[in-house]
Amino acid sequence: MRLAAFDMDGTLLLPDHQLGQQTLDSLQALHLRGVNLALATGRHLLEMQILREKLTLPAWLITGNGTRVHDRQGNLIFARDLPSAVAEEVIHRHWETSASIHIFNDQGWFTDRPQPELLVAHQMSGFSYQLCDLKRLPAHQVTKICFIDQHQHQHLCQLKTELGAALGEQANICFSAVDCLEVLPASCNKGSALALLCDHLSLTLAECMAFGDAMNDREMLSQVGRGFIMGNAMAQLKAALPHLPVLGHCETQAVSHYLNHWLATPDLAYSPEC
User: CATH assignment of 3-79+188-264?
Assistant: First the structure.
């Protein structure tokens, strides 16, 4: 394996959205072994740059669920935005939902009402949303749009159906968590972004391992040489990729447990229980 790609929330990070020391040590050991590190996340580039510097990890960044790819020095490798017409439709159309709407562009994360409970996941970086009238944001600069409902997952499932009917093949609509539904550029996901990064590094996807826990990780996990699903993953992801091994819970730093095994005995079978 020459590259390892990691989802953040629910995978690398603990349930309190902090990075455990054991996991950080394993990532550093992996880097010293000569394996490229890639952090593949729905989080914003501005936040991930803060975290990469804070954690001193020499990692490539796949952010916004594949809408941006940057090298370890911060240089842009790939960028894709939502078509203006799609962003305009999602922002200005009335949707039958109580979910809050969040818009991402290169300037930051924007929403129209205070939601301090969402900031718990961003304490490590201090990154925060900006409040504004969403309808006044330029539609031609939107990277992705999120609908968040922390109480009614079924309502988000219904919204996914409505969005799919309205947008068709113009967008990729997926769950990045049980409570978060995202509208992304068509054919844009972590898997396609990782393929571009591999091409940039003259690697093949077969030379990669990847770890994830949500439906926005599906393409990435299915395409690499070794894909691993977290024990705490969404049931939909486990059902979609039943052939992939399931590790332990992020609470027990299961990714670190596997990496330590691979670094010491890469040719031996791995059991999450050992």
Answer: 3.40.50.1000
